[in-house]
Structure formats: structure tokens, C-alpha cells
Amino acid sequence: MDEDESRALLAAYLPANEPAVTPVGDVVARARTIRRRRRTVLASAGSVVAVLAATAVAVSLTAGRGASPAPQPIPAASHPATTPTSQPTSSAPAAAPCEQENRSNDATARAWAKWVLGKLGPRPHVKAGPVDWLRMCEMDVGYTVFPPHTQNHAEFALPVLRRPGDAATPATDNLTAATERFEHLPQQYRTPCKDDLITEHVVCRQRKLPDGSMLVQRDFYDILIYGDPKDPAAKRDKQAVRDATRIFPDGRVVTAGLVYNLMPTWKRSFDRHVLSLDELAAIVTDPGALRYMPHR
Amino acid sequence: MRTTDADRFVAYYTARYRPLRRTAYLLCGDWHEAEDLTQAAFVRLYLAWGRVRTDGAHAYARRVLLNEFLGGRRRGREHPVDAVPDRPDPAGGSLDDRLDLCAALRAIPARQRAVLVLRYWEGLSVGQTASLLGIASGTVKSQSARGLEALRAQVPNR
B94-158 — its CATH code? Predict the structure, then answer.
């Protein structure tokens, strides 16, 4: 049998009734969601908050083992966005230059995931996802620069809230919870309610807590851009993201954010998210979260 | 991704989605899984688009497809079912014929199937196939021969 015959033999296995081609927009949207999650994981800036920061859904918990950070003022939301991101906000000694990115299934990261799971209460059908400790070097993602940081990161899938008459759907609400240590605060944590190229806030509340940290609660549209973000003609899409973030002036962050896994049907709906803004805030402001800050 | 890159990606996607999905189908024997594999390949390709030259895009997508396929087998993601999930091709013979074909395809071990598809469907050389699968050239030759023999034996009428 020569190669042509062999190919013909294989071709005989292909049914003629081939399904339609998936629209390129669906695949691009999936890729962008993954990219945002990586940013969250990688850069994590406020993870969900940042990742999705762009998409921003992150709530960063504080750092170190329950110790309260020295209270330092955090710039208000009106702070000019041009503030250099490289300017350290912490008086701590500068960390060694970041030379290598790393990832591990760290014990503290696993404990963080378990702790977050406990905070979700007795909910049915919660599925635990990836858990990691990550170290990321400075990363320029175009619209902003994420400084070097480490992160304990946990993901969960929860069934979305259904309305009467909704058909059964495999949709889940994906919760990303992270504790992070930034070498210095990323710009978007200084001006957390500021819209940018890929973030359109619907609700954004920020308030200072007694220990000097700032709590930010947001419902926002993560804007997916198919093409150059600066090109006004590029096709855009939106999905609804909800997050809460606790930001410490010394670079520690605790975040928790929700984003639907199913697109595009659910992308514009905030009312099916399984946790409210206050419930997310309760997770990130719980002092217990600070026990799970990532090691450097 | 810049606009020009996005345009290139869309053009590539339009041209290559179906062929790649057919390759995926031949690997897995199921349109649903083929769809998953192909989407995974294009998602990865999109994420790497800035680094992948146009002329290397297909090799990249094919490698991702293959890794996803073989990795899924290693992770036990394959769930054989009694019924064939796809509707029979009305122009392609009877349901029994289609069942025979699918059964024959599935009966061949995944890696051997991959050798057959890469060699004879994708038209790769023995060396390219060996390199892609991380196996020796001699193994490619022997797996090809055995795979073809198995196909012919299971579908004698074809």
C-alpha cells in the first residue's frame, strides 16, 4: 500500500457531515480568558482583579502571619495614573532582583485553598481547581506593569445561580482567591476604581480599614478586545466580573473574584454570581487570611 | 495582539480550522473531542501568536493538538462509549459501516493512531513523525506498518 492509498484509507474514516466551524471569536475569547487568568496567576495582581484587570478580580490578603502592616496612606482613586509604578511604597528593604519565575504546589498554598473552601460554607457541587504558589518577575502586559511578586493562588468552580425557567447549563462561576506579596503596589491598586482600556466599572466601592489597608469591592466589565487595544475599530466584547480586594500599602494583597466560565451567553450578567460583593469582602478581610500570605 | 497580527490569526484560523479538526477526528474518532482538541490547539496558538511565525503556525498547532490528544489519554480523559456519538454520514454508507469504521479507528492504540495520522494524513516524513512523537524512526516504520495492517484487517472492505 503506497502513501496515497494509506491516506485514502484514513480519509474513509472521516464522516461527510462535518460540524460547523466554531466562530473565531469564541476561541479568541477563551484564549483571552486564559491569558487573564495567567496574569492573575502570574502577575496576579489582585488576581482576579488584576488579571482580569485587566480584568481585575483579585483580593489580596495581607501578608505576613497576622502582622498588621504599618499604616501608610494609599493614594486615593483620583491619584494620577501616571504615578511611576516602579516607585516602592514600602519601607522594607528592597528584595533581590527577580531572576527566575517559579511555581510549586506549596503547602501554604494548599492550606490557603482549604481555608477559602471553608469560608464558602456548605455549598453543594463546589469543585476545587488549581492551587499554586507562584513567583513572578516584573511583567509588562501592555496596559500596565506588574512588579515582581509571589502569590498563593486557589481556584474553585461553583454552579451559577439560576433564574426560574433557566435551562440546565454547565456554566460555573469561577472563584479565584489569592494572597499576594508585591515588591511594590501595582498602579491599579493605587487607583482601583479607575476605568482603563479593558476595565469598565459598574460598581466600585473603596474604603480604608482601621489598620490602614484598603478594601475595594467591584462589579465591572472586563473588556475583551480582538486586536490592538488602542484601535477603536477593534471588535470588543464584555464579561461581568465581580471581585473584592484588600490592599496593604506595603504590597500585600488579598483578592477574591468571580468570573463565569461560559461565554458569551453569561458574559453580561452580574446577577448570577454566586457570591455577593459583601460575601467576597468577608473572605478577604477575614484576619485569618493573613496567615496564608506567600513566602518570598 | 496587534491588529495586523489579529488579522493574520483570523485568516489562519479560517483556512486551517477544518483541516486541523479533521486531523483531530482521525486521532480520536469523535467530533466532540476533535472540537475540544482543535479549540485547545487554536487557543494555545493565539496565546503564542506573537512568537510563532506564520510558516511555523501549523507545526505549532499540530504539536499542541498531538500533546493534548496523547496527554488526555495519559490523564485518562478518554471515555469509550458503546454508542457512536456522531450521526452516520448519509452519504458515507450504512450505520453499520460507520460503526465498523469508528470501532476500527478506536481499536488502534492512540500512539499508533498518531503515527498513522501524522505519516499518511498530515504527510510528514518518517523523521518528522519520529521527532514530533519523540520516538525512533524504526518505531515509526513498524507502528505505521502495524497500524495500516490493523486498519485493513478490521475494515476489509475498504
Answer: 1.10.10.10
